[in-house]
Design a protein that fits this description.
Helices cover about 15% and strands about 25% of the residues. It is an alpha+beta fold. It has a two-stranded antiparallel sheet. The radius of gyration is 22 Å and the shape is elongated. The relative contact order is 0.11.
Length: about 60
C-alpha cells in the first residue's frame, strides 16, 4: 500500500494511493503457481559451485 501525504493549511491529510502497476498481481501469481509456471529461472546454486570454498570470515 502506498500513502499520499498532503499538507492543507494546518492539516495533514493521509490517503492511500492505488498502485495501478500492481493491480492483478496476486491473481496472476496464483494462476502461475496453479499452472506450475513459477519455477526458478536461475538456480540457487550452480552445478559446479562448492560452498565449502566460500569464506565466511570477516
Amino acid at each position: 500500500m502506498r500513502l499520499k501525504i498532503e499538507l492543507n493549511d494546518s492539516q495533514i491529510i493521509l490517503s492511500t494511493i492505488e498502485d495501478i502497476k500492481r493491480q492483478g498481481r496476486a491473481k496472476a501469481l496464483k494462476e502461475m503457481a496453479a499452472n506450475c509456471d513459477d519455477q526458478m529461472v536461475i538456480p540457487d546454486f550452480f552445478a559446479d559451485e562448492n560452498i565449502t570454498d566460500w569464506n565466511f570470515t570477516k
